[in-house]
Specification:
heterodimer, A: mainly alpha, two-stranded antiparallel sheet, 14 helices, 77% helix, disordered N terminus, B: mainly alpha, globular
Chain lengths: 332, 375
């Protein structure tokens, strides 16, 4: 009798141990389950082309969600990313229309600079003005969107007005892999290394876990928080240039509502909204899960009108599942 | 640092103790009075700018434009006081109004359909409340999920269709006026509910418990406040009121589309926070939130009369939101800066940022000008 019990319990503990060590296992299991179900219904899901599509669709989301993650790690939130993307995309689009000969790396640099400046407005309001991040970025969400209208006067930049160079930025291929995916991968690796192996990266986690303890340890929290919104702006700037490149247009409603998607990707990826917890791998997986859900719903031929509901439901399930697994792990 | 903060806290306590008899003017420093002054200022400026501003018919029409936001703001105030947030309100109103529209299209009695919509909205609130209160997920995460879920169900119900031709008894909720006066029915509804919610928040034990939860949830729990139950009920009420707001919106438009009210959640939160609510909970009042709603309404109405684009209007509201929180802190910041010794790094940084921002705006207008000139 006793042996039976021990035989039952031993592997269980190992599973929970494993789960505790790799927080991302939950989401991987969810992705695999979803993939298996979808493949049964639609075999075309498991093709290279389909996966390339999925990755193309989530690349920009992954980049911006990484910026969002860094912000959420410090207990903040950046709701203004979508408007920053809209503003930078419009400004970059206007410059490209006027000066089509501009080398592409200058355009990327311009996008990064503009994004960083937009982010630094957030930083100043939050660190010097002591405004709660959610309020500050809620305000700048509408301010930047208003600036987009003010800037463009309600006009937009069309595909035929943009030069070939910017279109090729995301659509060119290296060894058969679209540049966009490679850029997203490259940025993910850099953010991973930054968060894991640099002093500033570790300080971000420290500030998010316990501001006071971090301060006693000699970290200046205000500096870290200032930096965090700069990074979010920088990544949004890169996202904006890629957005212009991928969709070949800059409109006044570019990326409208995108901010909640980035938060969703981060949260599904296991980033705790109360700060200090979260990994790059998790967020990238979260973005991939969102992409797979979107793609799978189309392949399984769910009516497009019900897709948003199914997406929302799956997000809820993923979050609840993650919570259940986490509490079980914590109990063990 | 600790010693300093403790001293500072003590000082602040002493100051706040004295404040009761300190000066007559201190009551005017309350946020609500500032909002009141701002409202008077907006009315004054607008009457100067447009002769149509103080027109009773105009004011009556425009006031009903803000009643959906106002209705959803009432439970939102209570939720924010407890330190939570409900991002799903606008999606919930879309969902319940869509169900009502769908049933109306199928030929079911409008009041039965409205009842079904209200039930569905309340059920949505139950889902939110259960996940927040009993599964103990953060409310931001839960309502972010239901934000997509509810809106998705709205699209599922109606798709690309719209519901129209509501009977006039129903559209009375949104368009009608009480007893042939100029006061819209929805305004009366809002005032009645605002009174109830305000009384609950400021004059009952439950209201005090809400503040207790917002200030320190574990402490509130240990002192016997039924935290889970209160949160659960709050989200259910929020769901019900959102559904009601959805019906009012449908009645005012005389039609329902699944994307009704998209983005209103941010307007609701803006109104609540501008009213002096602390987003971290435990602070704020119903008067403030209501005054902020009136302020936003008058501002938008005035700008609308001056033919200003709606996006630029949102920009002004956004700026107002930031400035409203920034201003009370500026005094503190200046005091703080005086204590800090002169440091060349900070001067360098300030100068650097100023240069960067100037460059940004020069670039902004330079890159914009030639294209605008074409038109």
């Amino acid at each position: 009798m006793t042996t039976q019990i021990s035989r039952r319990t031993t592997p269980r503990i190992n599973v929970w141990d494993l789960l505790a060590r790799f927080r991302e296992v939950g989401i991987i299991v969810f992705i695999l389950l979803l993939g298996a179900v979808v493949t049964l219904r639609a075999p075309s899901f498991l093709t290279v082309n389909n996966f390339r599509d999925i990755l193309m669709n989530i690349s920009i989301l992954a980049i911006v969600a990484l910026g969002q993650t860094i912000v959420i790690l410090t207990k903040g939130i950046d709701l203004s990313v979508s408007s920053m993307i809209g503003l930078v995309a419009m400004m970059v689009g206007f410059v490209m229309r006027q000066y089509p000969e501009t080398p592409i790396f200058l355009i990327v640099l311009l996008g990064m600079a503009l994004g960083t400046i937009a982010g630094s407005f957030n930083s100043i309001i939050i660190t010097f003005g002591k405004v709660p991040p959610i309020i500050a970025t809620l305000g700048t969400l509408s301010v930047y969107r208003g600036l987009v209208f003010f800037y463009s006067g309600g006009t937009w930049v069309n595909s035929f007005e943009l030069p070939q160079s910017i279109k090729m930025l995301s659509k060119g291929r290296l060894f058969g892999v679209p540049n966009l995916i490679l850029i997203a991968l490259f940025i993910s690796i850099i953010v991973y290394l930054f968060l894991k192996f640099t002093r500033t990266g570790r300080n971000i986690y420290a500030v998010g876990s316990n501001v006071e303890a971090a301060e006693y340890a000699g970290i200046r929290p205000q500096r870290i928080i200032f930096l965090v919104y700069l990074i979010s702006g920088l990544l949004s700037g890169i996202g904006a240039v890629l957005w212009v490149s991928r969709f070949e247009s800059a409109q006044t409603n570019t990326a409208l509502g995108f901010e909640l998607q980035t938060v969703t990707a981060a949260v599904i990826g296991g980033v705790s909204i109360s700060g200090g917890v979260g990994t790059v791998t998790g967020v990238v997986l979260g973005a991939i899960l969102l992409g797979i859900i979107q793609n799978a719903l189309t392949l399984v031929r769910i009516s497009p009108f019900w897709q948003l509901a199914a997406q929302g439901l799956l997000i809820l399930i993923a979050v609840v599942l993650d919570k259940v697994i986490y509490t079980r792990v914590a109990r063990n | 640092m600790t010693v300093e903060t403790i001293n500072k806290n003590q000082q602040e306590n002493i100051i706040s103790d004295r404040q009761a008899r300190k000066s007559f003017f201190s009551i005017f420093l309350k946020w609500e009075w500032l909002l009141f002054v701002l409202i008077l200022l907006v009315i004054f400026i607008n009457t100067r700018l447009s002769p149509f501003f103080l027109n009773a018919i105009n004011l009556s029409r425009t006031s009903s434009d803000f009643m959906e936001i106002g209705l959803m703001m009432l439970p939102m105030v209570l939720i924010i006081v407890t330190g939570n947030i409900d991002l799903s309100v606008a999606s919930n109103m879309g969902m319940s109004a869509s169900l009502m529209g769908l049933m109306h299209n199928m030929g079911i009695n409008i009041w039965l359909a409205a009842l079904a919509g209200l039930t569905l909205g309340t059920l949505g609130g139950v889902l939110n409340g259960y996940l927040v209160a009993y599964v103990k997920l953060p409310s931001l995460v839960v309502t972010l999920g239901t934000f997509a879920f509810f809106r998705g169900i709205a699209f599922g119900f109606l798709g690309d269709q719209a519901a129209r031709n509501y009977p006039s008894q129903f559209t009375f909720i949104g368009q009608g006026r009480v007893f042939d006066t100029l006061i819209p029915f929805s305004v009366v509804l809002f005032i009645a509910l605002a009174l109830i919610f305000g009384l609950v928040l400021h004059r009952t034990i439950i209201g005090r418990q809400l503040y207790a939860i917002g200030n320190n949830e574990p402490a509130a729990k240990y002192s016997g406040v039924p935290v889970e139950k209160i949160k659960f009920i709050l989200f259910i009420v929020s769901g019900f009121i959102s559904a009601l707001a959805g019906l009012v919106l449908a009645a005012r438009f005389g039609s329902t589309r699944p994307d009704n009210g998209t983005g209103l959640e941010l307007a609701v939160i803006t109104a609540a926070v501008l009213g002096g609510l602390d987003i971290n909970g435990g602070k704020g009042s119903m008067y403030g939130a209501t005054l902020a709603l009136v302020l936003i309404g008058l501002l938008r109405f005035g700008m609308g009369l001056l033919n200003i684009q709606s996006q630029v209007q949102s920009m002004v509201i956004g700026l107002l939101l930031i400035v409203s929180i920034l201003v009370p802190h500026i005094g503190q910041q200046i005091r703080f800066l005086k204590q800090v010794k002169f440091r060349w790094q900070s001067i360098l940084m300030t100068v650097g940022l100023l240069v960067v921002f100037t460059a940004f705006f020069i670039f902004f207008f330079w890159s914009r000008a030639p294209i605008i000139a074409q038109f």
